[in-house]
Amino acid sequence: MHLLRHGETPLSGRLVGRTDCAVTAAGIAACVDQVAGLAFNAVVSSDLRRARACAEAIGPSVRIDPRWRELDFGAWDGFAASEIDPAALGAFWSDPDAAPPPGGERWSALVARVGAALGDLPAGDVLVVTHGGAIRAALAHLFGFDQRGLWGFDLPCASLLSLRLWPDGAQIVGLAP
After folding, report:
1. How many CB atoms lie within 10 A of CB 87?
2. Does the predicted model carry a pTM greater than 0.70?
3. pLDDT > 90: what percent of the chain?
4. How many domains does the chain have?
C-alpha cells in the first residue's frame, strides 16, 4: 500500500481540515512525479479537491472515499498556528482527544474513521491519495503509534509512504525517498 499526501495548496502552512481548497498545478505535478514507477492496481482518494485532483491526474479510475479526509479542525480550520490561542493549541498537540479544536474532531475519531477505510481497501497494491493527518491515523491504526510519536513524522505535501502489509499481520514500513 502506498499513502501519498496531496500536493501543495494555496493554504499551505495553515490548519486545513474540512476546507475544500484547490491544489496548485505544481502540487499536482509533484504528486504525479512522486508515484512515477510505482506499481498499483487501484487508486483511492479523499473526496476533498486537493487530494482528488492529484489522484485523478495519476489514474483515470479513482475510488473516492470521504473517510480519508483530514482531521476536522473545527473553528481553527484555515487558521495559521500563530493565529490560535497558544494554550489551546498546545493542549491540542499534547492530547488531541482531551482537547480537540472547538467544534472539531477528536484524534480517536480520525483513527477510527481511517481504520474503517483501511479495512475496505481493495486487494493488491493500492495508492491512497490523502492528507497528513489521515496518514498519521493510518500508522496509528496499523502499528499502534501514539499521536505524540506521530507528530514527529515530517509529511510535507506530495510525500509518499510505502507500506508492505502481509495477511498474517506482519508489517514492514518503508519510507520512499
Report:
1. 9
2. yes
3. 82
4. 1
